[in-house]
């Protein structure tokens, strides 16, 4: 299962579900308006382009629905801002733990992050992000500079705007963090 946090308009969820019909893809966002169109498209009959493997849930990351702990083998967060950015970057350890709780042993978290001082943050510090997740049993598997191609690949119009004209002091990175496999098996 793939869980996309901060789904926005849902284009990534729809594209990922279409490309991977064998995977269940769940988009979670605090704004129902942002996901409304994508949710309707996914709910259409398959003969009209619907995607039975895509669903959307309205929820803030601080209050994720019950039953999702350890369920995702892949969780994604693309160009978050506000409280989701704080959680994804480890600045809010309690909510960072909520994100980590979604990921099954051996699963991955993929982050596309961008920030500048004018966003109310000192930028993205990949080592600090990795350290926050290491405290939660995750290890940094990949770290690189985020590119415009990354934003295009995840269907993020916000990310495209940020990376086309990054502006002074803007940092952008792509991170993959893996949850350590369970020692005795099982989910959780």
The top-level CATH class is Alpha Beta
Helix content: 25-40%
User: Order of strands across the biggest sheet?
Assistant: 3-2-1-4-5-7-6
Amino- and carboxy-terminal Cα gap: 14 Å
Give the CATH superfamily. Vaccinia Virus protein VP39
- CATH architecture term: 3-Layer(aba) Sandwich
Number of helices: 7
Question: In words, what does this structure look like?
Answer:
It is a single chain. The chain has helices at 11-19, 32-43, 82-88, 93-101, 126-134, 148-153, 157-164; strands at residues 2-5, 25-29, 54-58, 72-78, 103-115, 138-145, 171-179. It has 188 residues and is of the alpha/beta class. It has a single domain (2-179), classed as 3-Layer(aba) Sandwich (Rossmann fold). It has a seven-stranded mixed sheet with strand order 3-2-1-4-5-7-6, sandwiched between helices. α1 links the parallel β1 (2-5) and β2 (25-29). The protein is globular.
Can I get a quick summary?
The protein is 32% helix and 27% strand. It is of the alpha/beta class and 188 residues long.
